[in-house]
Design goal:
The chain has 373 residues and is an alpha+beta fold. It is 30% helix and 22% strand. It has two domains: 114 residues, 60s Ribosomal Protein L30, Chain: A (2-Layer Sandwich); 174 residues, Alpha-Beta Complex (Phosphoribosyl-aminoimidazole Synthetase, Chain A, domain 2). The chain contains nine helices and 14 strands. A seven-stranded mixed sheet has the order 9-11-8-12-10-13-14. The two termini are 34 Å apart.
Length: 373
């Protein structure tokens, strides 16, 4: 992603042409049936959303698909509305459960959209034969997570399906939040030179779920980072009112949200390999499985873009909010300034190593870790 030195020879021209081809690619749906890859948050998901749902329902915001819809409610006020479904397997894992996920995931989608989460709905699809005791524990987990986030679960629905028609229990939550006047976030706010900040270590949730499945010959003390981020977000916005953009790095991890930002902003994203916070146990597990931690899901980590001069203030503001008691964050690893926005290679994401080399980080077609949320 560095500028060519000297004149542009045939090899350099060919390399730049390949980069332009990568930049221009837009996922297309060529599949006749839905596969697990279509639910993984990568290129296959984007293709499915474009070809089926955007085609049918339209896209309210033509420039960017975000985690929540911002809706005008008159007199200049706005609310944020979001919805998400949770099908994680197993339903309980180190650091959380499907109940914690169902609350925190929706709260976090509202928070990174600039809203203050307020109310949630919860709908349950329950398979015949599920033990009532487990269902009660899931509901208790949801109550605990809602209390921690400061939101109320105010309505819901329950459906029971025959045995074999679902995998125990699926949960869908929708959330409503209030957007304070004057608060605006989005990829179009980002400018060249801005800094990218991550609120905590990467990849803990996805690897914790994989370990909990028990089908890998690996053992590691890895806990999910599942937690609400709205308190950290509010601390950040109070300290740095000019925050440009935020996303929670869930399915597809940091690599996917960075690619989405690059394409929506028209700028390049350059990450610093040495600055990326990854807990050693997570990095070791990823190395053994051949998975890049940049693509592994998080459920209590968000990414923000701030003016370069405010980067350290942003880190200090996020760090000022205590992590939940069971959070896996290592104080030496989080939060961190992990990169910047650049005019070079617009629409692409790169990672620069300590030796000055750069590798491109594209969006995956699917996800190597299905059903992690």
């Amino acid at each position: 992603m560095n500028q060519p030195a000297g004149g542009q020879g045939g090899g350099e021209a060919a390399a730049l042409a390949r980069i332009d081809a990568v930049r221009a690619r837009r996922p297309r749906l060529n599949d006749a049936v839905v596969t697990l890859a279509h639910g993984a948050g990568g290129k296959a998901s984007a293709a499915l959303v474009d070809a089926v749902f955007i085609e049918a329902f339209g896209q309210p915001c033509p420039d960017e698909l975000t985690d929540a819809a911002l809706l005008d409610v008159g007199s200049g006020g706005q609310i944020a509305l979001t919805t998400d479904s949770y099908v994680v397997n197993p339903r309980r894992f180190p650091g959380g459960s499907i109940g914690h996920l169902a609350v925190n995931g929706t709260v976090n989608d509202l928070a990174v959209s600039g809203a203050r989460p307020a109310w949630l709905s919860a709908a349950f699809v329950i398979e015949e034969g599920m033990e009532v005791a487990e269902l009660k524990q899931i509901a208790a987990d949801m109550r605990q997570a809602a209390s921690q986030a400061g939101v109320a679960i105010v309505t819901g629905d329950t459906k029971v399906v025959p045995k074999g028609a679902a995998d125990g229990c699926f949960i869908t939550t929708a959330g409503v939040g209030i957007v304070p006047p004057g608060r605006r976030l989005g990829a179009k706010q980002v400018i060249c030179g801005d800094a990218m900040v991550v609120s905590g270590p990467l990849g803990s949730h996805g690897m914790a779920v994989m370990m909990a499945r028990g089908n890998l010959a690996l053992e590691a003390d890895i806990r999910s980072d599942c937690a609400p981020v709205n308190h950290q977000v509010e601390a950040l916005l109070a300290a740095v009112p000019d925050v440009r953009w935020m996303r929670d790095a869930t399915r597809g991890g940091l690599a996917t949200v960075a690619n989405e930002l690059a394409r929506a902003s028209g700028l390049g994203v350059m990450l610093d390999d040495a600055a990326l916070p990854v807990i050693p146990a997570v990095r070791g597990a990823c190395d053994m499985l051949g998975i890049d931690p940049l693509y592994v899901a998080n459920e209590g980590v968000f990414v923000a873009v701030v003016p370069a001069q405010d980067a350290q203030t942003a880190v200090e503001a996020i760090a000022s909010v205590p992590a939940p008691p069971n959070h896996p964050a290592d104080a030496a690893l989080s939060p961190a300034v992990i990169g910047h926005l650049t005019s070079q290679a617009p629409g692409l994401v790169g990672v620069q190593n300590a030796f000055g080399g750069t590798r491109l980080v594209d969006m995956l077609v699917g996800d190597p870790l299905p059903r992690i949320c």
